[in-house]
Design goal:
alpha+beta, TolA/TonB C-terminal domain, 4-stranded antiparallel sheet
Length: 363
């Protein structure tokens, strides 16, 4: 056994209802930090059952950490709304610090467990009942050094701002872009299970306009999929931060250049919905079931605004269509299918409404 977190794409979607022409809003629940109080058995004396139990506990904490990181990422994006550039930078740095402290703690536990696995393989274990001393591995993870810690423990995870792009002024603020390198260990396939690092181009939109953005990363070589210049496009909502493109490349392959370009999206016209006409979802659906597999594999993400008619009480929406695209035809189709499968109710007959579905993948 060996504990290794291999990146997997998990779909997580947020849905925000729009009634008539009301502005979009979202609320973030309190973020619960994972409980890292895990017992790591001493490999030289552990039983196989103890080692398996520890591995299961680490996997559970890793899952909890993914949810926690998703939550604080959302909070960080929300907290930048209306703030000046200096304040936004402080908030982003606070997010990076919270992210690193959490991933470091898990990295320390994983390093300790991996060392105990090696000891268990060498000694074949024993009667059990003894706990490993993980203090050295936990301390090494907090040091955040590029060199391996004594005992062969892996390098701790880290998020590094590799480079800043340009900044462009728009109405109500500016937008800018940044290249971030995540040094969390990942296996990206290939012969010998290559060790890769993930790079992401983030766009920070401080303006009062939604943006349609394109971005690319040009490598000194190729990424893990053999692409010399991977790129993609995404919608970046006003006063928010969003990853526009991301890719993994084998450790040692550097990024030569990167670029992002954005243009304001035209606002939607107001709906002619009668006053006090609201709708409710009587029968919801599991929206992740409508996340297209090909879109997941291609890292396609983004918000889709769908417009539809509610005939009356307890009915399926009709005339469902996309009025603000995610810039992915696959995601747009998934959004239409998801809304069409719902059962909705309204006291007003044949009124038009809008709903935003945000398709998001979390590593």
């Amino acid at each position: 056994m060996r504990f290794a977190v291999i990146a997997s794409k998990t779909a997580m979607l947020s849905v925000i209802g729009l009634v008539a022409a009301l502005p979009l809003s979202s609320a973030y629940a309190a973020c619960t930090r994972p409980n890292f109080k895990i017992t790591i058995p001493d490999g030289a004396t552990a039983t196989e059952a103890e080692m398996k139990t520890a591995a299961q506990a680490l996997v559970k904490v890793d899952q909890e950490m993914s949810e926690y990181l998703r939550c604080i990422k959302g909070d960080a994006s929300q907290s930048t709304v209306g703030k000046d550039e200096a304040t936004r930078e402080k908030l982003v740095q606070a997010y990076v610090d919270a992210h690193n402290s959490t991933t470091d703690e898990l990295a320390g536990l994983a390093a300790c467990y991996n060392d105990q696995v090696e000891a268990f393989r060498t000694t074949k274990g024993g009667p059990g009942g003894k706990t490993a001393d993980c203090s050295a591995q936990m301390a090494a993870a907090k040091v955040r050094t590029d060199a391996p810690a004594p005992g062969g423990t892996p390098r701790p995870s880290s998020i590094v701002k590799e480079a800043d792009g340009y900044s462009f002024e728009l109405e109500g603020g500016a937008w800018s872009y940044t290249l971030i390198r995540d040094e969390t260990p990942r296996y990206c396939g290939g012969e010998g299970q290559k060790h890769c690092l993930r790079r992401t181009v983030f766009v920070t939109n401080g303006s009062d306009q939604d943006l349609e953005c394109k971005a690319y990363i040009k490598y000194d070589g190729t990424d893990a999929k053999g692409n010399p210049q991977p790129g993609s496009q995404a919608v970046v909502l006003k006063k928010s931060i969003r990853a526009v493109t991301a890719s993994m490349a084998e450790e040692g392959v550097g990024a030569a250049t990167f670029e992002a370009s954005c243009k304001p999206r035209q606002p939607l016209p107001a709906l002619k919905t009668e006053a006090n006409c609201k709708y409710e979802v009587v029968k919801p659906v599991n929206i992740s079931d409508f996340y297209p597999d090909e879109a997941r594999q291609l890292d396609e993400q983004g918000p889709v605004v769908v417009e539809f008619t509610v005939p009356g009480k307890a009915a399926s929406p009709t005339d469902v269509k996309v009025v603000a695209s995610s810039l992915s035809a696959r995601l747009d189709q998934g959004a239409v299918q998801a809304v069409s499968a719902m059962i909705m109710s309204s006291q007003c007959k044949n009124q038009r409404y809008r709903l935003r579905l945000n398709f998001q993948l979390e590593e």
